[in-house]
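Long-time lurker, first post. I've been practising inverse folding by hand and with some scripts of my own, and I keep getting stuck on stretches where the structure tokens seem ambiguous. Below is the full token string for one chain I'm working on. Before anyone asks, I'm not after the true native sequence, just a reasonable design that respects the backbone. If someone could post their per-position residues I'd love to compare against what I wrote down in my notebook.
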């Protein structure tokens, strides 16, 4: 009898319409993950490979990530070689044609971004890890919107029935960015034109957004550790320009920034460049809000 009941239930389940298929989305970073989630909501399942507190240039290529990529409908990544140290190994191991270059789910997000710091000759031999242009573009809210619109279009292509939902969610996301930046207007006005120093070029797009004036970097080139003479020159430059804040990411060593701070009277400000980079920064909109407020406080 029990067996008959179970068989009956199974037959009924087979006859019922299948639930809407969810798109399986994998992103390289938490920022892309949060924006994908804002656009796709419960029509997608999304996971990020890098954690928000990790240096996105260096992520361990764990076999579990390759398994996830093997089943992914979409793999969205920052591009411009940000993930070159770990992504190719994972994509190879995943053996998934959808996410191979040119596949239906291969989403190089950088292709919709106006890229800064593009060099005439892309040459990594001088140690610069970003010769193809600066990949830290998500730290400008206008680029956050571009990322959302790219996801809206890609998800709609792969899941046409969800197109209206993706469109509405993207509009809501863009509106939340606009209301956040409007609320930040007084802080942005106080930041504009102020001289600062940054560790890595991660803050170039944030500079474009906030109007802060980066007068020098701890690194002489992206990814290249500073020499004593570079630091001496930087200290002179800070004294000349009156720069009082050194911005650095949580995953870099404080030794060099602290040394420069001691020699200039400046303070070191640790800012997360990514969602989940510090506790309480759980979404892209919160990241923008947090970084602007913390910088304005530090400059006050
Ligand atoms: Zn970088």
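-- Answer (accepted) --
I ran through it position by position. Result:
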């Amino acid at each position: 009898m029990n067996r008959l009941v179970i068989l009956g239930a199974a037959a009924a389940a087979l006859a019922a319409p299948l639930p809407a298929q969810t798109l399986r989305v994998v992103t390289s970073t938490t920022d892309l993950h949060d924006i994908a989630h804002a656009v796709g909501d419960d029509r997608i399942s999304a996971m990020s490979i890098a954690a928000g507190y990790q240096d996105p240039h260096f992520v361990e290529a764990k076999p579990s990530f390759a398994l996830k990529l093997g089943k992914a409908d979409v793999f969205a990544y920052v591009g411009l070689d940000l993930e070159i140290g770990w992504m190719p190994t994972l994509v190879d191991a995943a053996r998934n044609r959808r996410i191979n270059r040119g596949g239906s789910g291969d989403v190089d997000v950088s292709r919709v971004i106006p890229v800064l710091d593009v060099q005439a000759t892309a040459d990594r031999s001088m140690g610069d890890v970003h010769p193809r242009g600066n990949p830290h573009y998500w730290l400008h809210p206008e680029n956050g919107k571009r990322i959302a619109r790219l996801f809206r279009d890609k998800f709609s292509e792969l899941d046409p029935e969800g197109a209206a939902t993706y469109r509405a969610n993207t509009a809501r996301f863009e509106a939340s960015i606009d209301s956040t930046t409007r609320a930040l207007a007084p802080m942005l006005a106080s930041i504009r034109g102020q001289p600062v120093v940054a560790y890595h070029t991660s803050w170039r797009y944030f500079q474009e957004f906030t109007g802060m004036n980066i007068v020098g970097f701890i690194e002489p080139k992206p990814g290249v550790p500073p020499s004593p003479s570079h630091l001496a020159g930087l200290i002179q430059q800070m004294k000349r320009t009156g720069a009082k804040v050194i911005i650095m990411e949580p995953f870099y060593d404080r030794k060099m920034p602290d040394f420069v701070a001691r020699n200039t009277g400046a303070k070191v400000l640790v800012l997360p460049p990514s969602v989940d980079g510090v506790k309480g920064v759980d979404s892209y909109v919160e990241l923008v809000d947090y970084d602007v407020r913390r910088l304005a406080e530090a400059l006050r």
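A couple of notes from the structure itself: Residues 23-182 form a domain with the Rossmann fold fold (CATH 3.40.50.1980). Residues 15-19 have pLDDT under 50 and may be disordered. Happy to go over any region you disagree with.
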